[in-house]
Design brief:
Shape: globular
Order of helices and strands: EEHEHHHH
Oligomer: single chain
Largest sheet: 3 strands, antiparallel
Structural class: alpha+beta
Number of strands: 3
Radius of gyration: 18 Å
């Protein structure tokens, strides 16, 4: 079973949160649904800026423990090494999830005579 180690941040990059998950999309949906009673709108951890995929839970847990001990500067270096612009990676995950699990319904079917 796949496991993911990830880092999420808020829109101002004030908070960096390291986590581990078996289903990254569901976890990110949970972050987006956290009630705003506890956080200001600028403090919602909704931007996925880094993740790694592992085959076993032990590998993921060891990496999670290592990254959790990183200082903020080390976490920022890790993020910038593969995502220098701090782009939200959720969009790519959603696209992959949508295309893998749903057939494309807006495909145009052309007769074979037109293609040849």
């Amino acid at each position: 079973m796949k496991k993911f180690v990830y880092i999420v941040t808020d829109r101002n990059r004030n908070s960096l949160h390291v986590g581990i998950s078996a289903d990254l999309i569901k976890t990110l949906d949970f972050y987006k649904q956290i009630p705003s009673l506890f956080f200001d709108s600028s403090q919602h951890l909704t931007r996925l800026v880094y993740f790694e995929e592992f085959k076993t839970e032990i590998q993921a847990l060891n990496r999670f423990k290592l990254i959790s001990r990183f200082t903020r500067m080390q976490k920022e270096r890790l993020i910038r090494s593969c995502n220098p612009d701090w782009v939200d990676l959720t969009i790519g995950l959603d696209f992959e999830h949508i295309t893998m699990n749903r057939p494309l319904s807006n495909q145009v079917k052309l007769p074979l005579a037109i293609l040849s």
